[in-house]
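ok new one. same drill as before - structure tokens go in, u give me an amino acid for every spot. 150 of them this time. try not to just spam alanines like last time pls lmao
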């Protein structure tokens, strides 16, 4: 998903560089491939992050948030065309958020790994003594620890 974000941003920025129809076709193929990768991976990632009970709500929120830039992008691109005289700036600005998002997402696993290492060091021997040590998803997927009576 990170790679698809970064490639998507780069392809958006390359649209103004096309001099012929063939270049536009190649870029559109890569844009479609990256968009397909993002869309198909979105549901499993939401399922993993929030569990099966809240996955549909998480996907709904994500689609709702995606609707804002999709709706506002066209008028903003028109404003850039009026201001600069062409659409080049619109494509360059449209490529920046996916690249930044991909770079931020590439750092998330490192931060998560450090947090897990710190948690393992902090918990150590106390995990066997604590009856509330069952984390959401360890007993049953989507079952909160407060409802999991052991």
């Amino acid at each position: 998903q990170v790679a698809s974000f970064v490639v998507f941003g780069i392809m958006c920025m390359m649209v103004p560089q096309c001099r012929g129809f063939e270049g536009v076709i190649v870029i559109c193929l890569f844009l479609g491939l990256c968009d397909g990768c993002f869309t198909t991976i979105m549901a499993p990632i939401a399922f993993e992050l929030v569990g099966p009970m809240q996955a549909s709500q998480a996907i709904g929120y994500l689609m709702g948030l995606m609707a804002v830039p999709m709706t506002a992008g066209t008028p903003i691109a028109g404003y850039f065309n009026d201001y600069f005289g062409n659409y080049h700036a619109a494509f360059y600005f449209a490529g920046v958020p996916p690249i930044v998002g991909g770079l931020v997402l590439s750092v998330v696993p490192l931060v998560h790994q450090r947090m897990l290492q710190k948690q393992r060091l902090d918990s150590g021997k106390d995990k066997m003594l604590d009856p509330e040590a069952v984390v959401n998803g360890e007993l049953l997927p989507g079952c909160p620890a407060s409802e999991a009576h052991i």
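The chain is about 75% helix and 0% strand. and btw The radius of gyration is 21 Å.
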